[in-house]
Amino acid sequence: MPVGEQTARRERRVPRHVAIIMDGNGRWAERRHLPRFAGHKAGVDALRVAVESAGRRGVKVLTVFAFSSENWRRPEEEVGLLMGLFLTALEQRVQELHENNVRVRVVGDRTAFNARLQQRIEEAERLTRANDGLQLIIAANYGGRWDVVQAARRVAEAVQSGTLAPGQVDLEVFASHLCLHGVPEPDLFIRTGGERRVSNFLLWDLAYTELYFTDTLWPDFDAEALDQALASYAARQRRFGKTGQQVEQGEGEHG
Ligand code: IPE
Ligand code: IPE
Ligand code: MG
Predict the structure, then answer these.
(1) Where would I find the beta strands (DSSP E) of the chain?
(2) Which of 25, 45, 71, 200 is catalytic?
């Protein structure tokens, strides 16, 4: 295949699943001499733009880190405001998402949330369940280690109840108990806000994900910034353990 044609093919390559750590809200606000909460509010607007742009670009699944299992360590006031913002965002934005054919799912330990928030989460999931446009997965009170442990617990329960033999526990069986089972693994991971770390986001699922870090603070992350990340992804060669030559010869990406 001529090089030009190959490049064109790569440029068209759109990740099916993008996972984002939406970081930098606090600094965005502090730079404007605003309370941190103003940054979180602006972050909700940035998410709206990201959902829209990702959908338009052909991304099928967008998983976003909204609140980590470690974020409870923040000042009580900020945690309270974040919970309130999550509730308001669900109440005000889900209808629009539904109209845009977006399916909303929330992953993480939701039992820690108050009853009203849990109810709104369930309503959002129920309302949008049959939508077949972009799937928006919101990770809230989520931790990658927690995810692996809850999967291990469920596997152990299945073994104890006799429905599963220990020897049957393989990669596929184990992964079927993780929060993101049923969607393709993330192709592209984006972290805004300048930090180069995973902060206990998806651990298992990121095994072969392409990583992209940007200094842009989350509230400033717009359609153009997403396009830059998508362009970076499109220019990469994913080898999955194979040689570059094998991939060039089109032996398929997986397996
Ligand atoms: C990410 O922004 C949002 C949450 C963690 C909820 P931050 O609040 O972490 O923003 P910085 O990192 O302090 O700027
Ligand atoms: C990760 O951001 C969690 C979310 C974006 C929800 P943090 O700002 O909490 O991460 P650390 O603590 O700086 O690693
Ligand atoms: Mg942060």
Answers:
(1) 17-21, 61-68, 103-107, 135-142, 188-191, 210-213
(2) 71
pTM for the model stands at 0.94
- Check: CB of residue 203 under 8 Å from CB of residue 220: no
The CA distance from 231 to 246, in Å, is: 23
Which has the closest alpha carbon to 216: 236, 191, 240?
191
Helix (H, G, I), strand (E, B) or coil at 12: coil
Per-residue pLDDT at 253 exceeds 70: no
218 ligand 2 Cβ < 6 A: no
- Give SS3 for 137: strand
Query: Distance, CA 197 to ligand 2 centroid (Å)?
Result: 9
* CB count in 10 Å sphere of residue 212: 19
DSSP 8-state secondary structure symbol assigned to residue 208: T
Amino acid code (one letter) for 67: F
Q: Name the residue with tokens 């909303």.
A: 104
- For the chain, domains (ranges, CATH) are 3-142+186-237 (3.40.1180.10)
What is the chain's mean pLDDT, rounded? Answer: 95
